[in-house]
User: What shape does this take?
Amino acid sequence: MARRSQMLEGLGKPILWIVIPCYNEEEVLPVTAPLFLQRIKEMSESGKISNKSRILFVNDGSKDRTWELIEELSKSDEHYIGISQSRNRGHQNAVLAGLMEARDVCDITISIDCDGQDDITAMDKMVDAYLNGAEVVYGVRSSRDTDTFFKKFTAESFYKLLNWMGAEVVYNHADYRLLSSRVLNEFADFHEVNIYLRGLVPLVGFKSATVYYERHERLAGSSHYPLTKMLHLAFDGITSLSIKPISIITGIGTIVSFIGFIGIIWAIVVALMGKGVSGWASTVCIILFLGGIQLISIGVIGTYIGKIYMESKHRPRYIISEKTWEPYERHYKG
Ligand code: UDP
Ligand code: MG
Assistant: This one.
């Protein structure tokens, strides 16, 4: 199959860049970095990918020795390279920074977390799917056995909710995916500041494939996503991808107003019949209930207005402060 790599290096083997976001990962990096290197070497020795492939670590403003470790790695083997964000911007922006760095110099990228949870052997199948014509390959967890019941339940509910809200998300797919440079170049035109990659990638389109893999426990360190951050990510994901919550609160408002209207008619009828309306407690409860719904509604609408405000500023989504392969100069914003 004539792929872009043939133009890039005339060999017909795709150049792969593995993009790995890292935030305070000094414990896990020394464990997983050699595994990524071994994978890339095995794949290039078997002739599947070019030996110009690279492992790109994106330091997301870590406060520990992560960046120093990345610099040391880059000196130890040419396959390791790294960029550093000027401050912590979150997982999604770190992945985006890496993908945008890679898009013009490679044929394919695979984004994967740095903690060894995602099975790296699935990369082979991802590249195979690309060679068979897919421009996007989603890594999908085949089981959630390592998760607690609570995590399984919340994850499943979240995916169902997102799909019901009209956002296309692939079930059990996180941020382990292959993207071709063609998709990345189209994706570069998605300028939103609030990015939620797993919801945006399906919007780019193109032929896609799915590769199933086992997800393990973290090899070292601990998760950066406690429940509160996960809930925040979920709310952010929904409000970034769908405006259905606004229709829902409009619907609730209509139903509640209708019930209120019936209540008023009923109160008038009762009053005309000479029977006084008894009980102020019920009245107060209704007022509180309606007040609550109104405040939630204002909050949801406010979230959208806030997002419009943030988008209207056109601030950069990431700022690269350092690269391992270039002396410190001015780096770019994107
Ligand atoms: N990460 C990041 N910036 C952050 C938080 C996390 O780049 O602000 C990286 C982190 O180093 C890891 C990946 O994102 O490679 C996923 O994070 P984590 O493993 O903590 O999340 P979980 O797997 O528990 O959802
Ligand atoms: Mg993890």
